[in-house]
Design brief:
Blueprint: H1 6-27, H2 34-41, H3 45-51, H4 55-81, H5 86-103, H6 105-116, H7 123-151, H8 161-181, H9 187-201
Helix pairs in contact: 1-2, 1-4, 1-6, 2-3, 4-5, 4-7, 5-7, 5-9, 6-8, 7-8, 8-9
Pfam families: TetR_C_2, TetR_N
Domain HTH tetR-type: 10-70
Keywords: DNA-binding, Repressor, Transcription, Transcription regulation
Length: 205
């Protein structure tokens, strides 16, 4: 048997994550086994265990698969816009989050799994801790942007950068949750961009 290349291994990992997303979406995380994911991915159970020690580790990888590119969007926005308008960089990042939800099925399906298809108990309790640790990275980057805005006189007087970072973090994930569950009247989906503009405008001098 030919030895697998690095590219083959990366593709197998990709296939496993994609299969996990689909099966989690259909069955829910707690009712899905690694054997079922292996079957859906067309690989052996051993191949799944080669890449992921357990379901919790695979779950975190699933989340990172969409979260890390969005973190890159924030990093790019801060590098481009933070010199002149740090608050504009934050707004750009928030808009990108909504645009990704609208345009990218993988992102949308992943957030649906994270929000609606998972109970953070048992083995996924540790996964939640890992997710929260990585979420602190986002909060810290937001804090840096708000601090730059304050230093440049762009942040409204009396507002604390640390508090504003936490507030924006909570606003974003509250908006994402509402966007995901809002399937009938689309109130939050249609209003998302205006909500983001207002969120940032209230912080400007």
């Amino acid at each position: 048997m030919a030895r697998k290349t690095k590219e083959d291994m990366q593709q197998t990992r990709r296939d496993i994550i994609d299969a996990a997303r689909n099966v989690f979406s259909e069955r829910g995380v707690s009712r899905t086994s690694l054997e079922q994911i292996a079957s859906a991915a067309g690989v052996t159970r051993g191949a799944v265990y080669w890449h992921f020690e357990n379901k919790a580790q695979l779950f975190v990888a699933l989340r990172d698969d969409v979260a890390m590119p969005l973190m890159d969007v924030l990093e790019a926005a801060l590098q481009v816009d933070s010199g002149s308008d740090p608050l504009g960089a934050i707004e750009c990042f928030l808009m990108a989050y909504v645009e990704r939800l609208e345009s990218d099925l993988t992102t949308r399906q992943t957030f649906e799994v994270l929000i609606n298809k998972c109970e953070y108990t048992g083995e996924l309790g540790d996964a939640l801790k890992c997710v929260m640790r990585r979420s602190h990275d986002l909060s810290e980057r937001l804090r840096v942007a708000y601090q730059k805005a304050a230093e440049k006189g762009g942040l409204r007087a009396g507002l604390d950068p640390d508090a504003m970072a936490r507030d924006t973090y909570a606003f974003l994930f509250g908006l994402v949750r509402l966007w995901i569950v809002d399937r009938e009247d689309n109130e939050f989906r249609t209003a998302a961009r205006d909500m983001i503009r207002t969120h940032i405008a209230l912080r400007r001098t």
